[in-house]
Amino acid sequence: MFGLIGHLTNLEHAQSIADELGYPEYAEQGLDFWCMAPPQIVDEIKVRSITGQVIEGRYVESCFLPEMLSQNRFKAATRKVVNAMAHAQKYDIDITALGGFTSIIFENFNLDQIRDIRNVSLDFSRFTTGNTHTAYVITRQIELVAPKLGIDLERASILVCGATGDIGSGVCRWLAHRFPQVDLILVARNQQRLQEFQQELGTGRVLPLATGLPLADVIVWVASMPKGMEINPVELKHPCLIIDGGYPKNLGTQIQHPGVRVLNGGIVEHSLDIDWKIMKLLNYDVPKRQLFACFAEAMLLEFEGWHTNFSWGRNQISLEKMAQIGAASVKHGFRPLLT
Ligand code: NDP
To answer: Which keywords does this Swiss-Prot/TrEMBL entry list (predicted)?
Structure first.
């Protein structure tokens, strides 16, 4: 049995679908109430691989909302994550993905120090961030879509916003290995971490976001931002491929410009319909088949019987593990979203 721990995009979104999640009484409630709400299993899932294997899973709604971070409700945010993990473990789920912000909160607030949640002693080997599969999918999206736009990856400038993050560092390692000539532009806020990462990578240049954006043929957004930001497409190169892997999205508004192509980053499409409702509630175009790559990682670990924290800790994503999870992804019928 696999598990998915997730959260909704914002308070407004949470209120609008509370009824469909099975708790209509939450629809009228504000952030204070959501800060108190316990985790709940709101979806039972069945997934069939193209090999014919069938697995079952559960979606645990953590009731975390990104506003808890932007409004400094850190205690509530951390409680949401550990309570959801304890809930998954109580239901005997073998391997559970910590989706979106839940893994970021786990890392940022050192939640590995908290083992005991009421009568549950957390066993971290039952959880994965899913970030190795996400990094793999983003690299495939770059490799498959950029050439179609006429971007030559051997000589392109690629900006990674969130380069020092878990997913960002994995993507940068892969780019540096696969395209040694690439002009890699590393962006984040903490300059010391950027310099250290640049040294570890042995390539790339550190630039402020505003300086780097007009230089980039490909822009990968994997920054942990509770709210998306605005960028002016006119100031970008044309053609420009933008891969927005943030959840919530790093871009605040939809970009419509003939020279700029925006892809939903870190999203996969399964070859067969998945029996669930959660992606419909998250407003995905093809909710029976499209899903976050981190969720798909838990499914892959379950298909393969790898009941282990495959992606764990920060900045540990290796090229070998990306290749390993990538091969499992192809084997079971997942494809990176390319449109
Ligand atoms: P991490 O916390 O490990 O890394 C976040 C990175 O973003 C760091 O480099 C951080 O550096 C940088 N950052 C944060 N805020 C800003 C900002 N305002 N401007 C520039 N850089 C910023 O996060 P993850 O790698 O785990 O996740 C990254 C994103 O991917 C998140 O939005 C997450 O929700 C999403 N995600 C998507 C998945 C999918 O399946 N599609 C799966 C898992 C996560 P610094 O603090 O120095 O700025």
So the answer is: NAD, Oxidoreductase
